[in-house]
Amino acid sequence: MNSITKLGLAVTVLFFTSCVSKKKLLDAQAQYEKLNVTYTSLQGSLKDCESQKNELSNSNASMIAQIDGLNKQIAFLKENNTQALRQLQDLSVISSSQAESIKKSMENIGAKDSYIQTLQESMARKDSLNMALVMNIKGAIGNLDDEDINVKVDKGVVYIDISDKLLFKTGKYDITKDAKVVLGKVATVLKNQPDIEFMVEGHTDNVAYRSGVLLDNWDLSVKRATAVVRILQNEYGLDPAKMAAAGRGEYLPIADNSTPEGRAANRRTRIVILPQLDQFFKLLEPKKGM
Asked: pLDDT tens digit string along 149-171?
């Protein structure tokens, strides 16, 4: 084999080797760009999720499902970003500054992962405190019929429903003596939780009502709510700054008004333990490095 033939063969081998390496390089770059677009999109989605301050009222099950989905996507990105970075480094096509940029992006993913874990822990703590509050109220009230008073947690909010017949006489808004005993027991529990804020709601059935200065059921429901608030403030010493009174009238029934039993269920006073939104919003504030 002469020199010219050897030279031609060497050029041919070098050409094909270069083509193969270039193809691998282009494939790796394309894969990295695709993963980077996906990562950027997920970052935007996560920021949108953080800005939804009104999602507090959603069920914990829905929120936990969303967090699980984000965790899975983050795990996927971690794995694929690592593979892409390794391939690019092997092909020697990125600079040290580019590699550092990718590394910082992956660290940001880890910070968001930690942030989601903090949210989960805060949700679990809130649920535990709510359940403890419910048990304390039930224990303080004692053996009252469920139809007269009901304490429950719904979508992370504590509700205390007290029937109309226990608190007031028909068509009146003066609180009975027996009702003051029950309110005193509830007040004892609430007073031991000074950070709690709550709203007292009056509810009626849909039977038309008018008496004296009261124009309708809405007027009656407001007067009943303010009567309860005044008892809690004046006789049991609860901080008025932590209380609110509202009248719902006939517009939020929990039963069918076409039956006597349904109307009786709808005539109620509800104490709503308000969520501490300031603490929740603090959790949503951007953290350093995120």
From this structure: 888 888 778 899 999 888 998 88
